[in-house]
């Protein structure tokens, strides 16, 4: 019998060698986005978080455009058309730095651009998608309202016909990039159901107000959109969008990015804790040598790797055209909860140092409070999974 080959010890940073399953293009995208994030984002993100904004979002949009991450999973119009898994890997590497920065890319590519790509006219696509892909134009997505979050079908924003035009009135809330956007995809109730409109933000009656005093997702721009008699030609309507299923299809694309992004946040917290535990000395030894610390690290290791496996499997299903929206609910429900556990444990390992911006753990921990809420709360995704396995809806 031939001698068995001895297995190498697992890599603490990729314990189950999940990245070995990535294709060459996916690894190349991982490396380029990771290098960009380390060079252009990581040195400044704590300052942006503390300031509660992104100082120069236009410059950041151009940098993201040059990197090629805006709408990278879409085909044509200057978009790369890469695999869903490759897009997920990019989201992972961006959120490893900060959830707000991944949100910038997700809202541009998976909400605003995806809505135009899926439901827009040929003229709308030609006018907006190449400029958004390059970062020369910024988009936002207006669905959530002050009184309509988990139940978007109850929205109060209305669009009424007035001759050949449409007139929009209403308010949208928690809109990423709202105050810097050149165009807003706005969803409104009409006499014929919910419809989507592509609204240039310079249109009279449109206003965007920055939401201040956030304690989460601070390295991000969040706004309230106010539409007061915004008059649009019929050519501003997204012709392919009819009913609530249209915006929900866009949301599912953004949720998919969160499935991967949460892995990045969790990985950063785990790696920060692993490094800190190995260098922080108490009672004459590194705290990594204490049993309670090792148990925390073991739990974190399992959460990070299980989340990574879930993200990769859902990505492969999506690439095969076999990903149901409840698969994405599974990933968001499981991976965000895992990332929250990892962030909390990492913060505990860091002790008092964990509450400062010198370390990334509390920043990620606070950001994940938003990630757990937007694009469907934890409870909403739990009910989606419950319906998937029982066949009975608990929503109505």
TrEMBL record:
Its EC number is 1.3.8.6. The keyword Transit peptide applies. Residues 140-230 form the Acyl-CoA oxidase/dehydrogenase middle domain. One of its GO terms (biological process) is fatty acid beta-oxidation using acyl-CoA dehydrogenase. It holds the Pfam family Acyl-CoA_dh_M. Pathway: Amino-acid metabolism; lysine degradation; Amino-acid metabolism; tryptophan metabolism. Residues 24-136 form the Acyl-CoA dehydrogenase/oxidase N-terminal domain. Its cofactor is FAD. It catalyses: glutaryl-CoA + oxidized [electron-transfer flavoprotein] + 2 H(+) = (2E)-butenoyl-CoA + reduced [electron-transfer flavoprotein] + CO2. One of its GO terms (molecular function) is glutaryl-CoA dehydrogenase activity. It is an enzyme of class 1 (oxidoreductase). Residues 243-388 form the Acyl-CoA dehydrogenase/oxidase C-terminal domain. This is glutaryl-CoA dehydrogenase (ETF).
């Amino acid at each position: 019998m031939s001698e068995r080959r001895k297995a190498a010890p697992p890599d603490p940073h990729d314990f189950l060698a999940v990245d070995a399953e990535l294709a060459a293009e996916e690894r190349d995208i991982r490396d380029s986005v990771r290098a960009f994030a380390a060079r252009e984002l990581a040195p400044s993100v704590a300052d942006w978080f503390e300031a509660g904004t992104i100082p120069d979002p236009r410059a950041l949009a151009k940098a993201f455009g040059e990197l090629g991450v805006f709408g990278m999973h879409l085909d044509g119009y200057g978009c790369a058309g890469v695999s869903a898994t490759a897009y997920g890997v990019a989201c992972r590497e961006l959120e490893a730095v900060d959830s707000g920065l991944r949100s910038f890319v997700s809202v541009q590519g998976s909400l605003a651009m995806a809505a135009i790509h899926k439901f827009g006219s040929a003229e709308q696509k030609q006018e907006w998608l190449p400029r958004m892909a390059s970062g020369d134009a910024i988009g936002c997505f207006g669905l959530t309202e002050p009184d309509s979050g988990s139940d978007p079908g109850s929205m109060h924003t209305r669009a009424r016909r007035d001759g050949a035009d449409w007139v929009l009135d209403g308010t949208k809330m928690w809109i990423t990039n709202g105050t810097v956007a050149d165009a807003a995809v706005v969803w409104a109730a009409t006499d014929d159901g919910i419809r989507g409109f592509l609204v240039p933000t310079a249109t009279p009656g449109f206003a965007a107000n920055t939401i201040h005093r956030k304690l989460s997702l601070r390295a991000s721009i969040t706004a309230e959109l106010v539409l007061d008699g915004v008059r649009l030609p019929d050519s501003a309507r997204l012709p392919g969008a009819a009913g609530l299923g249209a915006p929900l299809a866009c949301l599912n694309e953004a949720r998919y990015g969160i499935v991967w992004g949460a892995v990045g946040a969790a990985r950063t917290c785990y790696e920060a804790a692993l490094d800190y535990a190995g260098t922080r000395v108490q009672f004459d030894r590194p705290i990594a040598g204490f049993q309670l610390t090792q148990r925390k690290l073991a739990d974190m290791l399992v959460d990070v790797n299980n989340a990574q496996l879930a993200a990769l499997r859902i990505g492969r299903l999506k690439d095969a055209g076999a990903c149901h929206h409840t698969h994405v609910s599974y990933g968001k429900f499981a991976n965000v909860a895992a990332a929250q556990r990892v962030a909390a444990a990492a913060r505990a390992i860091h002790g008092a140092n964990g509450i400062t911006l010198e370390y990334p753990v509390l920043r990620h921990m606070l950001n994940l409070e938003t990630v757990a809420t937007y694009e469907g709360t934890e409870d909403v995704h739990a009910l989606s999974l419950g319906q998937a396995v029982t066949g009975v809806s608990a929503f109505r």
